[in-house]
Design a protein that fits this description.
Strand 17 (338-339) and strand 18 (348-349) form a beta hairpin. Helix 2 packs across helix 9. The protein has helices spanning 38-46, 49-59, 72-88, 204-213, 225-228, 232-238, 261-270, 275-281, 352-371, 393-400, 438-447, 468-473, 492-505, 521-537, 553-562; strands at residues 15-16, 23-24, 91-92, 100-110, 115-120, 126-127, 134-137, 144-153, 159-160, 165-166, 177-181, 218-222, 243-246, 255-259, 290-316, 327-333, 338-339, 348-349, 379-385, 409-414, 426-428, 451-452, 478-480, 482-483. It is globular. The protein has two domains: 42-104 and 308-562, Aminopeptidase (3-Layer(aba) Sandwich), CATH 3.40.630; 108-304, Glucose Oxidase, domain 1, CATH 3.50.30.30. The protein is built from 15 helices and 24 strands. By secondary structure, the protein is α/β, with parallel strands linked by helices.
Length: 564
């Protein structure tokens, strides 16, 4: 028997039965032996694409009104998922012996009385039209706030000592409004902001957080489709109704805003500047903040309400007396954008792909794990989280209040928008390479005859845009699993065209709807692959760890050192 690399050293099965067909492979020196015990094999066989379809069909039905956070449809979705967990016989892992974990949120809706003006020191005021030219939220929970503040352009708005980068250069920005770019300085050097791959510094959430920490009154992001990786319509649709925020915690902005690129060009031109040059200048470490001859004059009026929303959490206790207080976690968000009563025509954001598909996979995994009489050594946690579309809020709360200490959770595998397009020949797992679990995943992918596809758009920062990131921030090794671009019977270019068509025409739009023509074969493949990975992680002697030097390694060591 050959010694395994990071795996439980037990010779098990070498044949997988997947939708790709049986696989019989001998290990090579470059590939660790990856085997599964017979109970795991039996569970794999039970995963059914049509079960996933049934969950997707129901969760994306018009009756659920787009599963808005804190809205009737979102609450129905949570009850449905909890009911499935109960039917499967899983243990409740939420608050007070229930399947629910209350997530304290506040809902903020900009009122029609809001005004947003860019006022020059000389000349006519630019009065911006909501949704067409700007979107903005007052994060403070105040029903009314007035802003009359100087606008300062701060480039990318990043302070990153590890990259010797500081866009602020010590300038006092307290009480000011910061104009900034999305994304981060351009680079092909993997040691500088990870080259083409976006880091968290490039995410809009970081920009707002850093501006608030520095005492700014507001922050305005300039939308550029190529930098944001999505068109203005996504910004508009994602910010056209109530938006939720976690109660308490970090400082908040009076105006967290985006402006259309055309508005930014006009603002620069009327300031006697060229926007393209301002963008270019921001790519130099010598960049210094630029005060514009404009103020933001805004009257922010908001409808504020306390929002009741919940994560849904269940556990399958492990079989090993010593290891069952540790766990592998599976996650998927159930919320979407809800219903927009003021819109004409189809105004329900059904979210079939985003993310009824992930929920369908999560529920099918919960079912087959629960039905198998022999359990993995560690416990298995299942969490369907709320408020992902509001900024990963449900998973952020879960990470800060997990059912087991973060240092005891070996791995989080997340599912978000898994396309029902047929049988995949590739798998994406951006972030897996940052963990010492990657050799296991690589070997397992070979067993499944799935090529590992690198992130097709690393500049989009997908790793920081889904719920696994919230778990990574508290130290838990975490990444999402998804299909690549190559599908059986199709070229890779076909897959890329499908992804582009969805992003351009359906992502965060009412047309993301269920269709009987959807093919859930691939979703079942991802579910089987995830089950295999989770079973291994729940059985190997040691917990999964981040690679040395990773940005989340420190949090992992702290959580394990403190026992938290």
């Amino acid at each position: 028997m050959r010694k395994t690399v990071g795996l439980l050293p037990i010779l098990l099965f070498t044949t997988f039965s997947t939708s790709q067909g049986p696989v019989k492979k001998a290990a090579t020196p470059s590939m660790p032996w990856v085997h599964l015990p017979s109970p795991a094999m039996a569970a794999l066989e039970k995963i059914e694409p049509e079960h996933i379809r049934a969950h997707v069909r129901f969760l994306s039905h018009d009756l659920l009104e787009g599963r808005g956070t804190g809205q009737r449809g979102g609450n129905i979705a949570a009850e449905y998922i909890a009911t499935q967990f109960w039917l499967y016989g899983l243990k409740a892992a939420g608050d007070n012996g229930t399947f629910f974990q209350d997530v304290p949120l506040v809902g903020i809706t900009p009122a029609a009385e809001t005004s947003f003006e860019l006022a020059p020191s000389k000349g006519d005021v630019l009065r911006l039209t909501p949704l067409e030219q700007y979107v903005a939220y007052d994060q403070t929970e105040h029903t009314s706030d007035d802003i009359d503040a100087e606008i300062v352009y701060v480039g990318y708005g990043i302070e990153a000592p590890e990259y010797q980068w500081d866009d602020y250069k010590g300038v006092d920005v307290r009480g000011k409004v910061l104009l900034m770019l999305v994304n981060e300085p351009e680079s092909n050097d993997p040691n500088f902001f990870k080259g083409r791959a976006l880091t968290y510094y490039g995410r809009w959430t970081y920009k707002y957080e850093e501006a608030a920490r520095k005492g700014a009154a507001g922050a305005i992001l300039i939308h550029q489709s190529e930098k944001a990786s999505y068109p203005w319509e996504v910004v508009r649709n994602s910010n056209s109704g109530e938006k939720e925020f976690l109660k308490g915690g970090e400082p908040q902005l009076k105006a967290a805003a985006w402006i259309h690129l055309d508005v930014a060009r006009q603002l620069a031109r009327r300031s006697g500047m060229d926007l393209d040059k301002l963008v270019s200048d921001a790519n130099s470490s010598n960049f210094r903040p630029v005060s514009l001859p404009f103020k933001l004059k805004a009257h922010m009026v908001s409808k504020v309400r306390q929002v009741s929303s919940r994560n849904v959490v269940a556990m399958l206790p492990g079989s090993d007396t010593n290891l069952k207080n540790e766990a592998v976690l599976y996650t998927a968000h159930y919320d979407h954008l809800g219903i927009r009563p003021e819109m004409a025509g189809d105004n329900i954001y059904n979210g079939a792909r985003d993310n009824a598909t992930g929920c369908g996979i999560l529920l099918e995994l919960a079912r087959v794990f629960a039905e198998e009489p022999v359990r993995p050594r560690r416990s298995i946690l299942f969490a369907s989280v709320t408020a992902e579309e509001q900024g990963l809020l449900g998973s952020e709360y879960l990470g800060k209040h997990p059912p087991l200490a973060p240092g005891k959770i070996s791995l989080d595998l997340n599912f978000d928008d898994v396309p029902p397009l047929g049988s995949p020949e590739e798998v994406e797992a951006s972030g897996a390479e940052r963990t010492n679990f990657y050799p296991v995943m690589d070997g397992m992918a070979k067993e499944f005859r799935l090529a590992i596809r690198p992130d097709s758009h690393p500049e989009a920062g997908h790793y920081y845009r889904s719920d696994h990131f919230s778990l990574a921030r508290v130290g838990i090794p975490a990444f999402s699993l998804n299909e690549g671009m190559k599908y059986k019977g199709h070229t890779r270019e076909w897959g890329m065209a499908q992804a582009e068509e969805y992003t351009d025409h359906h992502y965060h739009q009412p047309s993301d709807e269920y269709s009987p023509n959807m093919d859930f074969t691939g979703d079942a493949v991802i579910a089987r692959f995830a089950l295999a990975l989770g079973w291994v992680a729940a059985s190997q002697p040691k917990l999964v760890a981040w690679e040395k030097g990773d940005e989340f390694e420190k949090s992992r060591l702290e959580s394990q050192g403190s026992g938290k």
